[in-house]
Design goal:
Blueprint (H helix, E strand, L loop, with lengths): L3 E10 L2 E11 L4 E6 L5 H9 L6 E6 L2 E2 L14 E4 L11 H8 L4 H10 L15 H13 L5 E5 L7 H18 L2 E5 L3 H4 L5 E6 L2 E6 L1 H6 L4 H6 L4 E4 L10 E4 L7 E4 L4 E4 L6 E10 L4 E7 L2 E7 L9 E6 L4 E3 L1
Parallel strand pairs: 3-8, 3-9, 6-7, 7-8, 12-19
Antiparallel strand pairs: 1-2, 1-4, 4-5, 9-10, 11-13, 13-19, 14-18, 15-16, 15-18, 16-17
Helix pairs in contact: 2-4
Length: 330
């Protein structure tokens, strides 16, 4: 049985429609990630699922019981749905343990397990105004988890964090799903936040879901260029200019007339120019720590690739070779 059922859901904020006729289901313990440009409707969708924004139409069921909007009840929100906003706040002039005790509905042993998972057990005697942003966020999350929710909604949980606290929060969210067997929906615009975590990925644009699938499916076979860009760098090249790239078509969004071949930078590798069927001129090399990105101009088209090592210089000729496999056309 599905945990969550969203049916024909639409909503508006400040007179503007932000969610348009969205339907999907979520299985127990499933991890769903939602990506999309700013203004795509991601936060509005989460607010409606959590009971903090009144839908214009449609319905939301959690375990076959309807989730009411804020216009239908005195206190907004659903007691079995935890929503961690981008703008989490903690009350001042409280110790951490006091704030947690106010919300906790669990036995002490269970609550302490949550504090450990959230990496806050060493902060319990601290005052709330002595905490960093990352510490406050993990405490806000622990406070929500101590209410024993069935569904956790995370709205851009990494957007306001530095790299150190971001990595810490990623570990926490992963362990929350694994240790607590909790269903989650996470909104993010960063591919690295999504791909290694999600069971299912939704892409939103203009209030609608425009593609859904596993992380591997949406990364390698995007529905269009917008969806491709949401998960990182990519190439789209005109195959009519490079006959050597005419390979078996796996799919085309415009039938047999597809003219653009899609591939990610890691699908192209460097080979010696002498015997290469495909050659180009190196235009740019950038170092990113664990890898380099190289721009190569081939017959008037700029190809972007990723490599762990190279011995190239700007202006040099190099050979290129595609990884084996079917090609994806847009």
């Amino acid at each position: 049985m599905d945990l969550l059922q969203v049916s024909n859901l639409s909503g508006a904020e400040e007179g503007k429609t932000t969610v348009r006729d969205i339907s999907f289901t979520q299985r127990p313990f499933e991890k769903i990630a939602i990506a999309g440009e700013t203004g795509a409707g991601k936060t509005s969708l989460l607010k409606m699922i959590g009971g903090f924004m009144q839908p214009l139409s449609g319905q939301i069921l959690l375990n076959n019981e309807r989730v009411k909007g804020p216009d239908e009840q005195l206190i907004a929100g659903h007691k079995k749905i935890a929503y961690l906003s981008q703008h989490f706040e903690l009350r001042n002039n409280y110790k951490v343990k006091e704030l947690l005790e106010m919300a906790n509905l669990l036995e002490q042993v269970e609550a302490e397990k949550i504090y450990s998972i959230c990496r806050i057990d060493h902060l319990l005697d601290r005052w709330t105004d002595e905490l960093s942003g990352g510490e406050k966020q993990r405490i806000a999350l622990a406070r929500l988890l101590s209410t024993s929710p069935q569904l956790l909604l995370l709205d851009e949980p990494f957007s306001n964090l530095d790299m150190m606290h971001k990595q810490e929060m990623k570990k926490v969210i992963h362990e929350v799903g694994e240790e607590m067997k909790l269903s989650c929906i996470l909104v993010s615009h960063d591919a690295l936040d999504i791909l290694s975590w999600a069971d299912t990925v939704f892409f939103m644009r203009n209030g609608s879901i425009v593609q859904s699938g596993t992380a591997e499916e949406v990364y390698n076979r995007p529905a269009d260029e917008y969806c491709a860009a949401l998960l990182g760098a990519y190439n789209l090249i005109d195959t009519t200019l490079i006959p050597l790239l005419q390979t078996k078509v796996a799919h085309s969004t415009i039938g047999t007339k597809a003219k653009k071949m899609f591939f990610r930078p890691e699908e192209l590798k460097l080979v010696p120019a002498d015997n290469a069927a495909l050659k180009g001129t190196v235009k740019k090399i950038l170092y990113w720590g664990s890898y380099y990105t190289v721009d190569v101009l081939v017959q008037g088209q700029l190809l972007f690739l990723q490599t762990s090592q190279h011995n190239l210089v700007i202006g040099q000729q190099t050979g290129l070779e595609f990884a084996p496999g079917k090609r994806w056309y847009l």
